[in-house]
Amino acid sequence: MIEHSRVIMHADMDAFYASVEQRDHPELRGRPLAVGGASARGVVAAASYEARRFGVRSAMPSVEAKRRCPQLTFVRGNMALYKKESARLFQIFKEFSPIVERVSLDEAFLDLTGSARLMGPAKQVGQQLRQQVHQQMSLPISVGIAPIKMVAKIASAAAKPDGLLEVTASEVQRFLEPLPVGRIWGVGPIAQEHLEELGFHTIGDVARATTDDLRHALGDWGVEIAQLARGQDIREVEAYREAVSYSEEHTFAQDITEKHELEPLVREHAESVARRLRHDGVRAHTVVLKWKSAQRRAPGARGYPVFTRRTTLAQPTDDGRTIAEHATHLLYRSGPDGAIRLLGVGCTGLTSDSVDQLPLFGASTDARRSTLNRTVDQITQRFGNKAIGALARKDREQVGLSMQIKRGDEPDG
Questions:
Q1: Does any domain span residue 238?
Q2: Residue where a domain terminates, one of 147, 170, 193
Q3: Segments in the chain below pLDDT 50
Q4: Of 18, 156, 379, 409, which residue is the least packed, with the fewest Cβ within 10 Å?
Q5: Catalytic residue among 21, 85, 101, 107, which?
Q6: Residue 12: its H or E element
């Protein structure tokens, strides 16, 4: 049975990074535009709708994007600006619902259940939200409304660009039935191919199959996707999800072999992770070093093997120098023995300060470091995150941007 009482909105900005650039730079309007790295390893973070007509998509290698659209204009992007705009966007979202689930910098689920008496019908609320985004940010946004999250997200995609689509409870099954089976949450390209080999080409094919047939063909997973195919999804809009780890990583435009060249970036990542830990009032028991080898072992983007090394600390920390020291030790003790294309530093095993008693010995040193860290946090909050140490610009070039929300790095609204 579909939950008739639930009303869920999925709001998603249209080509967010590209739309911000076109808004702020009139000379880019109406032109095919890609935000991201233009180097040989560059990746498209966002493509304007003018570029999408040529088949350019986010996550596409920049070389392929340029091949499809020779007149494509690349913009490196401005993450500080995009985060600031994201903060403005989520302030607007909070005016329409107290329960907002951040999915990425530019999209969210909003729970509108029970709001009709106060705010009016859901479709009217969706139009008001879109109008407010247009007026305050001069940016396009698409909205989907449905009784379950999966359908709301599919509806917002169907409404693009810059539209709204509501799917009521009585319309859910008719809406889902003709869609490709790959639109079901949890069905990726490989799973879709397997389902199609079994004769399940549309969501309706899965919805009509018996539970016994699905369990025989696909196990318990088949039963789970059938529930989604029938519009049965009990997942609520979650206003907050606990972080289990914090990390920073960087993909190089050119491979790096010498470990000493990586040390400044290790320190930079460690300080960034530490700031986010302090922002959220947590400390970490474990430091993780991650790298991606430059030696390809299989075709495709995932053909480069990824390695991690970790160490557990005697006491949890939120101090960047401590994290950097342990990560650097991992780098030299058990780190890469050849060229790498990506380096990351992370922390896990999180705890709040109130859980673990801090050491009595060395307390004065810890106090001085804590005071210094608070000062650094105040400076970076005012002036932005500054690199600690510096690699040569050609080595430090990032090949792409991410829409990911980093816990502890959410901009203040």
A1: no
A2: 170
A3: 1-3, 354-358, 360-362, 386-395, 403, 411-413
A4: 379
A5: 107
A6: strand 8-13
Domain count for the chain: 3
Tokens (6 digits) for 13: 């900005």
| CB within 8 Å of 66: residues ≥ 6 apart | 38, 72
Give the strands of the sheet with 33-36, arranged side by side.
44-47, 33-36, 73-75
The three-class DSSP label of residue 341 is strand
Identify the pLDDT of residue 2: 46
pTM of the model: 0.68
Same domain, 166 and 186: no
Residue 96 makes CB contacts below 8 A (sequence gap 6+) with 9, 110, 112, 119, 125, 128, 129
Asked if 107 is an active-site residue, the reply is yes
Tens digit of pLDDT for each residue in 298-347? 765 567 899 999 999 999 999 999 999 999 999 999 999 999 999 999 99
Residues in the chain: 413
Quote the tokens at residue 275.
């700031």
- Domain range holding 13? 1-170
**219 and 267 within one domain:** no
Do 339 and 375 fall within a single domain? Answer: yes
Please enumerate in sequence order all residues whose Cβ is within 8 A of that of 147, keeping only pairs 6 or more positions apart, or say none.
2, 3, 4, 5, 6, 7, 8, 167, 168, 169, 172, 231
